[in-house]
Amino acid sequence: MAQLLSGKVAAITGGATGIGRAIALEYLRQGASVAINHFGDEKSVSHFKCMQEEAGEDAKLIAVPGDISEKETANNLVQETVQAFGKLDVFVSNAGICQFAEFLDLEKDLFDTTLHTNLSGAFYSTQSAARQMVKQGTGGSIIGISSISALVGGAYQTHYTPTKAGILSLMQSCACALGKYQIRCNALLPGTIKTQLNEKDLANEEKRKYMEGRIPLGRTGVPNDLAGPAVFLASDLSSYVTGAQLLVDGGLFVNLQ
User: Fold this and answer.
1) Is the pLDDT of residue 197 over 80?
2) Is 209 a catalytic residue?
3) Nearest to 93 by CA among 39, 63, 129, 138
4) Would you call 238 a catalytic residue per the annotation?
5) How far apart are CA 16 and CA 24, in angstroms?
6) A GO molecular-function term, please (predicted)?
């Protein structure tokens, strides 16, 4: 079976765990060379080493540590990707944080950290990736990992949902701005996915059953559920798709009541 991303080079933020990790490993399986960004702490380094073991010693995989909320980290990720693999064809803005909090008690530090990591990080890294793609002159694909939360409210996510709506809007505007360079920009909107961001929340048996009961496919998602859609948007199969939003939620959004 032909590899859908053979010869392509991808960079992914927040790629050591969760959705980013699943996408990175599938990109490797589909023939891509992959650079991931992670925070650079001991836990992230450990997660990356596990990724390397799973990918195999022949995998074209590198890590570029750093805080993605800082513009310099975004620039370093793109520069080191090109240095290692010669170009950049696909960029996935995935890094994000989500800590539930009461709106009336929400502290400035949590709001600022969420905003800078989720939205500023997405903006700076997307901009840096786009500049490289324009320089190359061969087009490219940029994918923003938004969320079903961009379309609905969340009582404990008043600081989080605006950032995910921002990523969706960023991809739409970038599709307009970058189309003339043949750079496609699309958003993936995961529903309830079992990752480190919500494992404590889903550990509540009653809440988990409630969530599953609202999802037409009858289960919460796993990170690998995003890998296929991310391959589609990165590959030539989606060569006329830009400015789109793809829900990957098991049908949750259309069943919200």
Assistant:
1) no
2) no
3) 129
4) no
5) 8
6) quinone binding
Among candidate residues 146, 147, 235, 238, the one labeled active-site is: 146
Pull the structure tokens for residue 125: 């890294």
3-state secondary structure string across the chain: CCCCCCCCEEEEECCCCHHHHHHHHHHHHCCCEEEEEECCCHHHHHHHHHHHHHHCCCCCEEEEECCCCCHHHHHHHHHHHHHHHCCCCEEEECCCCCCCCCHHHCCHHHHHHHHHHHHHHHHHHHHHHHHHHHHHCCCEEEEEECCHHHCCCCCCCCCCHHHHHHHHHHHHHHHHHHHHHCEEEEEEEECCECCCCCHHHHCCHHHHHHHHHHCCCCCCECCHHHHHHHHHHHCHHHCCCCCCEEEECCCCHHHCC
pTM, rounded to two decimals = 0.95
**Dist. CA 162–CA 151, nearest whole Å:** 10
Give the residue-averaged pLDDT of 50-77.
96
Closest among 8, 16, 11 to 223, alpha carbons compared: 16
Catalytic, out of 44, 160, 235, 238: 160
Which amino acid does the sequence have at 97? I
194 is catalytic: no
Catalytic residue chosen out of the listed positions 27, 44, 141, 164? 164
Q: What is the pLDDT of residues 138-147, one digit of tens each?
A: 999 999 999 9
Name the token pair of 63: 């890590």
